[in-house]
Amino acid sequence: MYTQPDHITALDLPIPERDRLPETFQKYFAICEEKLGMVPNVLKAYSQNPAQLDVFSKLYNELMFGESGLSTLEREMIAVAVSSSNGCYYCQVAHGAAVREYSEQPQLGEMIVMNYRVAELSARHRAMLDFAIKLTETPDRILEADRQQLRDAGFSDSDIWDIANIIGFYNMTNRVASAVDMQPNPEYHALHR
Amino acid sequence: MYTQPDHITALDLPIPERDRLPETFQKYFAICEEKLGMVPNVLKAYSQNPAQLDVFSKLYNELMFGESGLSTLEREMIAVAVSSSNGCYYCQVAHGAAVREYSEQPQLGEMIVMNYRVAELSARHRAMLDFAIKLTETPDRILEADRQQLRDAGFSDSDIWDIANIIGFYNMTNRVASAVDMQPNPEYHALHR
Amino acid sequence: MYTQPDHITALDLPIPERDRLPETFQKYFAICEEKLGMVPNVLKAYSQNPAQLDVFSKLYNELMFGESGLSTLEREMIAVAVSSSNGCYYCQVAHGAAVREYSEQPQLGEMIVMNYRVAELSARHRAMLDFAIKLTETPDRILEADRQQLRDAGFSDSDIWDIANIIGFYNMTNRVASAVDMQPNPEYHALHR
Amino acid sequence: MYTQPDHITALDLPIPERDRLPETFQKYFAICEEKLGMVPNVLKAYSQNPAQLDVFSKLYNELMFGESGLSTLEREMIAVAVSSSNGCYYCQVAHGAAVREYSEQPQLGEMIVMNYRVAELSARHRAMLDFAIKLTETPDRILEADRQQLRDAGFSDSDIWDIANIIGFYNMTNRVASAVDMQPNPEYHALHR
Amino acid sequence: MYTQPDHITALDLPIPERDRLPETFQKYFAICEEKLGMVPNVLKAYSQNPAQLDVFSKLYNELMFGESGLSTLEREMIAVAVSSSNGCYYCQVAHGAAVREYSEQPQLGEMIVMNYRVAELSARHRAMLDFAIKLTETPDRILEADRQQLRDAGFSDSDIWDIANIIGFYNMTNRVASAVDMQPNPEYHALHR
Amino acid sequence: MYTQPDHITALDLPIPERDRLPETFQKYFAICEEKLGMVPNVLKAYSQNPAQLDVFSKLYNELMFGESGLSTLEREMIAVAVSSSNGCYYCQVAHGAAVREYSEQPQLGEMIVMNYRVAELSARHRAMLDFAIKLTETPDRILEADRQQLRDAGFSDSDIWDIANIIGFYNMTNRVASAVDMQPNPEYHALHR
């Protein structure tokens, strides 16, 4: 039917053997394996350029795990809603698994992939995802009224800054992944069902 | 996080108790339970009007299981691609499970939900799904060249007729399901992973 | 200028001579001729597969002429508005004629073909057609608020179910007709002007 | 069902009595009545401002009846295709009647209103209308290749200039008519059927 | 990097030498040079056909400089907003310079080119440009409510007529300019910075 | 006419006084002032969170000034084309100035803001910007054929990786800037005209 591609990306990139990577990244990859059971392919792809890998992974960790008024699950919900709107296969697979994990509600992960609008969400989460989709699909049409809806749903201005940055981040990675046909690690599919 | 709705649809419809249904439907529902482990909610919803249930289920069975040059998996692949384009939660869940089952490739079900364009499909299946999406999204722009691409991929004119009818059918059911917020049976999520 | 095609569809389909059809359909076609002055080409096209013709025509008759809180004209208005949005030539011609007939207002048929938004409709009909177009164009964006607008315009939940099914039905037939370049019977053009 | 509006536009404009108009326009209106059987409402609307009426009607007459490599029917076909894409009720009614008249093929008028893509047109007319729709819908995406397709279909560079101006003109009038809810004279509907 | 085209349009048109033009136009061009420091290329292009040049320039002058409740700056703001939505290079350059000139706020010209929604405008100007963009992008969706918003912002019905005509005019010229790759005079770029 | 906002963003964020910033950032800001004549507002906005400012500025510098087969001007051209498609005022202003600077062709900066398709670009730059816009507008539709067009225009696979990352980066920053109504420093407008 369908042939599973055996590439990380469709580009011919000089991805080094893992034991040729700078030691920091060897350690980082070991931690990934311990925590996730794999080294995500996105990190392998960026490892072709250690300077890029360094800043990319720092930005990712800062936005997804740094101090914030948003819970980790909320950040992952944004990741999946944005990636669904952009049709990014890699990010829907990887972050869909994360929503299943953090919510302990496997259906929620699928629902945000398929159409978050049908989910019976709290007013807070509905406002958060509505903003995520509007900013993703029509960034030029965001007005003060849109920011106010987030405030009305209980978000502080610092939270809105974080929401904007996380939405922005997945609009970046979705496009990198789609541009190069990045393949998610097959392990994600069975996780947290 | 998310509250699983306990309704079949968001409408207040006179769905009868199962033992009040005409005997044919009681038998039909028993067969569903035997084969699928459940009575799909779409059939329960239509059972409020036995005449509608009768014609709807006959059309469904004719198009999905009647004589055709298309395999059952191919028909289910169309169902999922169309339902993904239309953002129909019910049909992506129910027919995504069917693609996982018939293909024995769970990832294929997810891939067509998330973005069928990234899948490494045969030329036949690529042409079939490209036509499905064009007919779904811009039905007014279908030209002879589009039909010819199906012929070039090996489909007969009778196959094209069947493809058109299956694409049409899911454009109908997607809209009925979305219009009434039809909820898929929770059992689907775990099937054929 | 323009050459009238002499085909029923652009596909090479095994449409049988009328006297080779099962007797029920010969009778059905005779009734059509009596009532409409012709056998609609859509029925001739489906007659290549008697099982399909049977379920298609039963679904059509159930939705358009079965018990419902919607008048026949209202169902035809939905048919034309949906078909206009989808750019389906066959259905705009055939059901445009029906709106001219049932309304006895020829301009109303043209208006719904051209842009129903300009018509001075009752609040009930405006709400009905607004829902039809939203469900046709962005089925993934239908929310409870949309259903509520129909209730506010006086429709019962059973009416909404019927509206959803009729909208769905024309989203199916529009795509079948466009996929195969189905040609309307030339007789329609002059009817009920 | 539907209430025929009795206004020319939805705006409260100082449209003068006909006998108060400058004499040139009284004559012009008399000619319209003789040739068309009516004074088109668009002219009545512009008559509130004689200076505007003067330049508008001169531009209209220059583009539609001036020297050109395009036949009058071709100019009217462009008018209808553009007006259909823009959903302009007034212009579809008025110029649809003109296509029926000049082509002596009533179906052609309806076809261009409903979806010109299904018409079996000559390569020249197909290229002309494809250009009209692309320039109407995505003017920012016109490239040299689009102009070349017109040349390949036999149009001279002067013809292309005329085509561009006629497409432009209806993109203007469509928006004026829609902005003010301009109503076509009821006489158009029955003409040239 | 980029090669400045040396054509007025991409078409091969019989544009006459200036001293072969009818005397009225020679005078008109002299006035342009005096006031603007150049003869705008759009006038040179139309000069291939004196009858067209005559009506085009009269309509332009009537709409942009005739009696109206709209200031010249307001008319130019509409010109730029519409031209930005349509991606018309010629008109954004030429009328962007005019907004810089009339407003004496160079940033305002750039802002309307780039995204008028971010500008802190008066309610009157916001309503005017919102209407301009809606009428430009979705002319078929204009309703009485849209006209009412203009009235609520202080515009009279005669003003709305003028707004509609100016929006319409740039929807015409944008398409003519894009269709023929009309190049703005290089002088515009440095004006009124 | 228009009131210049005096905020950096529309959010109430704890942006520290410059002399309270960690010393590295004080130095970084001093370098900006020396080189650009200002500290870009985007850096001031991020300075509310030193950890974010650190990774954001490193990613920016890596992508825009790190080793690559793309020239700095090419990266800036991508920045402006993407920002124009997304309607981001901040980035069009800031990077439009950069294109004017690096190209020494002020018109090129305006052209990419207004509609890059009209520019007479080399095949390399046309392919690069076409890819940028397709990845920005329809990231789900990128196929191997799109990557191949970049290769055919002379880009290596490593160049494509860089192109993808720069396009992604501006799809991130455009959304952050639009989400928070970030205002560009007024100094940009007059630079490099």
UniProtKB/TrEMBL annotation, chains A, B, C, D, E, F:
Coiled coil: none annotated. Residues 54-104 form the Carboxymuconolactone decarboxylase-like domain. One of its GO terms (molecular function) is peroxiredoxin activity. SUPFAM superfamilies: AhpD-like. Pfam families: CMD. This is Carboxymuconolactone decarboxylase-like domain-containing protein.
